[in-house]
Amino acid sequence: MRISVAIPVIVMSLAAAHCAGQEDYAEARRTMVREHLRARDISDPRVLEVMGRVPRHEFVPAILRSQAYADHALPIAESQTISQPYIVALMTQLAEIEEDHAVLEVGTGSGYQSAVLAEMVREVYTIEIIPELAESAQAKLAALGYENVYGKTGDGYLGWEENAPYDAILVTAAAPEVPPPLIAQLAPGGILVIPVGPQSQVQQLLRIEKAEDGTTTTKVIIPVVFVPLVRERR
Ligand code: SAH
Predict the structure, then answer these.
(1) Is residue 210 part of a domain?
(2) Is ligand 1 within 6 A of the CB of residue 141?
(3) How far is the CA of 178 from the centre of ligand 1 (A)?
(4) Structure confidence at residue 200 (pLDDT)
(5) To the nearest whole percent, how much of the chain has pLDDT over 70?
(6) Which of 18, 79, 106, 158 could cross-link to 171 by cystine, CB 3.0-4.6 Å?
(7) Does residue 86 form part of some domain?
(8) Residues 30-60: pLDDT tens digits?
(9) At a CB cut-off of 8 Å and minimum separation 6, what does 2 contact?
(10) Which residues of the chain fall below pLDDT 50?
């Protein structure tokens, strides 16, 4: 998501980051789950449990750690963002994932959404178009002990055909239209969660379910603002 961070906020968070220990983060995570997820419409107990466990502060720049559990997106490297916790939880809940599922994520970014998914499913495949982000997210996920996340650098508009079909696909960058390859790579009964709309404006988060006969049903969920899904590195 596109946000601007005012300088005083960074100065404050620097001071707080020095004082905050693991315990403070655990408490901050509990508060996040209670106030920003449970109090809204996140009701899937598995999603709430995992959001209460994954260390989001490990996926944000060190200087912004004290804000890791606030309910907003934060900047990461390469002018990209880590999505707001509520949106990560909502997209995960909408995908109706099960333990034995294989899930594709488009837009690895920080690796946080990949970690949330990895805690809940058999295999996560994640594609990132910016090589530096793909590499740093893979290193982070490996350091945290995630062994069921497979990442690559590439254009996620095209999906990742070799490992298809996927029980769910989550796209964490806004596309001008629903990419046909992603529908094709969705298993029958699978769910695609994707923000669709113009760049740098409000988009609509869509939940698209593919029936056994291959037809799709689209539900508009909420207006959102994501960074754009780009087709080639700028
Ligand atoms: N899921 C991420 C959110 C990252 S923001 C997280 O939890 O942190 C969206 C990401 O999508 C950015 O890192 C951006 O570089 C990436 N992206 C944009 N277009 C893409 C494309 N065509 N294929 C793969 N990744 C893309």
Answers:
(1) yes
(2) no
(3) 15
(4) 82
(5) 90
(6) 106
(7) yes
(8) 999 999 999 999 999 999 999 999 999 999 9
(9) 81, 200, 225, 227
(10) 1-18, 234
Which residues touch 115 (CB under 8 Å, ≥6 apart)? 54, 59, 141, 144, 146, 149
Residue with tokens 């034995």: 100
Q: Whose CA is nearest to atom 13 of ligand 1?
A: 109
- Number of independent structural domains in the chain: 1
User: Between the CA atoms of 116, 195, 181 and 156, what dihedral angle is there, to the nearest 10 degrees?
Assistant: -60
Mutate to test the pocket of ligand 1, among 79, 84, 130, 193 (most ligand atoms within 8 A of CB): 130
215 Cα to the center of ligand 1, angstroms? 27
58 Cβ below 6 A of ligand 1? no
Specify if 52 maps to a domain: no
User: What's 110's domain CATH number?
Assistant: 3.40.50.150
| CA–CA separation, 76 and 85 (whole Å) | 15
**Does the CB atom of residue 225 touch ligand 1 within 6 A?**
no
Instruction: Tell the residue number behind the tokens 């890791």, with chain if given.
Output: 68
pLDDT digits (tens, 9 = 90+) for 168-186: 999 999 999 999 999 999 9
Mutate to test the pocket of ligand 1, among 199, 229, 231, 233 (most ligand atoms within 8 A of CB): 229
- The domain containing residue 170 runs over which residues? 70-224
Is the CB of 155 within 6 Å of ligand 1?
A: yes
